[in-house]
Amino acid sequence: xxxxxAPDIADKLALPEEESRHCVRVLRLVEGDEIEVxxxxxxxxxxxxxxxxxxxxxxxxxxxxxxxxxxxxxxxxAVAPTKNLDRIEWMAEKCTEMGIDRITPLxxxxxxxxxxxxxxxxxxxxxxxxxxxxxxxPQLDELTPLEDYLAEESDAQRFIAYCxxxxxxxxxxxxxxxxxxxxxxxxxxxxxGDFDPQEVEAAxxxxxxxxxxGESRLRTETAAIMAVATMHVLGIAKSN
Length: 240
Known about the structure:
By secondary structure, the chain is an alpha/beta fold. It is 33% helix and 24% strand.
């Protein structure tokens, strides 16, 4: 069954214009056809098309069910966007497919990318959510200065991964060793030029624990995906 995204489906009983166009003109669905609609907040609706209009496809809700995230506790990623936009878009897509609650693009001292328009990134997250059969859309923040992010209050586990050999390394443990799947967690990944030593020190003061993702020097987007994948694997292992 075809799946669509409509954040206000319960109130408006209609698909947004872009989803309506895809439903009616691309897929050629008609009145009486049944579809699935997700609101991005964790609810899946089974609907019947009442008016197959390319700009305002009206539906009747047949049933609804809660579809909470299968990974349980929150997984949050703060990562400095790469200079190559394709890489950060690919990273966000794959993390959404695996399952993630929040993505915060970070502006760091060594950031290669100082500006990030999130409109296209949001569309990629929506597509990945639908493709992977999820009902919850990750929170996508605007580009956030590192100091503002560190100032946020949080009860989650907080991890920072870096690879600069001049920074403290003896305290680092594997993320797989220190991550507790029964608690919310956030992990911070630096830019292509890595975190500045003062940024790492500030992260320590904010309660971030230094971790390693292995012996390889990973690209920013690869490190982000590996961190999220590690937390998912450990969560699955714990549940079994």
